[in-house]
Specification:
- The relative contact order is 0.12.
- This protein is an alpha/beta fold.
- It has one domain (about 25-245, about 305-340): Glycosidases (TIM Barrel), CATH 3.20.20.80.
- It has eleven helices and 14 strands.
- A hairpin with a 2-residue loop joins strand 10 and strand 11.
- The strands form two sheets. An eight-stranded parallel β-barrel has the order 1-2-5-6-7-8-9-14, surrounded by four helices. A four-stranded antiparallel beta sheet has the order 11-10-13-12.
- The chain has helices at about 1-15, 40-45, 75-85, 100-105, 110-125, 145-165, 195-200, 225-235, 265-275, 305-320, 335-340, and strands at about 30-35, 50-60, 65-70, 85-90, 90-95, 130-135, 170-175, 200-205, 240-245, 250-255, 255-265, 290-295, 300-305, 325-330.
- The radius of gyration is 22 Å and the shape is globular.
């Protein structure tokens, strides 16, 4: 007892902080892709850092119909995640285009039917909430009038759904495309960040695909882009409600033929780099790894994201007081990413 008092007094007098007494806060959520057999084991292996897992299990195909992907509702997964102290907030995507979503959300009766369908899904199993990943409704090239109809309708939908979920003690989250002041009308035009920031518990910004499978080779994200995204987002949404989505994958492009890009998880990309004998290179501007190789006489170029790249992006989150990340996706990443997300330095290559 005397030693404890003496130690405490010494810490006070020297200004040395007392050692942490509890586990670090859980600051990571992650999507669990149903097609990755190791995703559930990966979640359990990193339960100390995960506060929420969102199994990619459901798709809304009509106001009153939600279809299930393989493994949806697996009680072994749900119960196992709960035993590990992780919330289970399944993701619902949608197959409806902008016009169909404008009709669904614009009619009060049809919208109420959809809300009821989602609430039944959330209540039918011991879920902790829902994550809406409604992307197709953005309708690339949609007329401004249609965009406004969908935006207004989606605002009403989230208001009504979140109220119902909150009344049941459940969380309400949504994944959205990143927006910036420079490209406010191009990226995810139907997402009203200010409204969603007031309504949702968590706004998950998909901070990836700056260059995607249909574009010329390039980085999935950059620190400068993250700065633009979070400058825009935090001006409209409390930082505590933002989860910055980070990628653990990349694209393997056939040079000159962007439509032929192949998806690679971070683990697959790094294994491929080693197999073809390409040197490790971290792009100076984007802080993302990339390499080239030749296959069947054609040149290929791979851009992906790993722990070193993410470590260079995280200071931007800290600049805007955003503490939470959302990983796309479990079983994509290399093990070295988890210490980086806990605040430790990235490993050397």
């Amino acid at each position: 007892m005397i030693r404890v008092v003496a130690l405490t007094l010494m810490l006070v007098l020297t200004g040395t902080p007392a050692p942490a007494t509890g586990p670090p806060p859980r600051t990571v959520s992650a999507w669990l892709p149903y097609w990755e057999p190791g995703a559930y084991r990966d979640a359990l292996a990193h339960a100390g850092q995960l506060h929420t897992v969102s199994p990619f299990w459901y798709e809304a195909t009509a106001a009153d119909r939600i279809t299930s992907h393989p493994g949806a509702g697996d009680r072994e997964v749900i119960d196992g995640l709960h035993r590990a102290g992780i919330k289970v907030v399944p993701t619902v995507t949608e197959s409806l285009d902008a016009e169909a979503m404008a009709r669904l959300t614009g009619d009060a009766g049809t919208r109420a039917t959809h809300v009821e369908t989602l609430v039944r899904l959330a209540s039918g199993l011991p879920y902790d909430g829902l994550d809406l990943d409604y992307e197709r409704m953005n309708g690339s090239g949609s007329a401004p009038e249609l965009v406004e109809r969908v935006r207004t309708g989606f605002n009403a939908l989230t208001t009504e759904l979140c109220a119902r979920l909150h009344a049941l003690g459940k969380e309400c989250a949504a994944a959205v495309f990143p927006r910036t002041a420079a490209r406010e009308h191009d990226e995810g035009p139907v997402y009203d960040y200010a409204h969603l920031g007031r309504t949702l518990d968590r706004l998950r910004i998909m901070g990836y695909n700056l260059h995607d499978a249909l574009e010329e080779p390039g980085p999935l994200s950059t620190p400068a882009w993250y700065d633009e995204i979070l400058s825009y987002a935090t001006a409209r949404v409390p930082a505590s409600r933002i989860e910055m989505g980070i990628p653990a994958y990349g694209w393997d492009h056939r040079t000159g033929d962007p439509a032929r890009a192949t998806h690679r998880t971070a683990r697959e990309a790094e294994a491929l780099r080693r197999r073809v004998g390409a040197p490790y290179a971290l792009d100076a501007g984007s802080r993302t790894p990339h390499f080239g190789y030749t296959e069947d006489g054609r040149r290929r170029e791979v851009w992906y994201q790993d722990a070193r790249g993410i470590a260079a992006h995280l200071p931007v989150l800290r600049k805007y007081d955003v503490e939470n990340t959302a990983l796309w996706a479990l079983d994509f990443e290399e093990p070295e990413l988890w210490p980086v997300l806990a605040g430790r330095p990235a490993p050397a290559r």
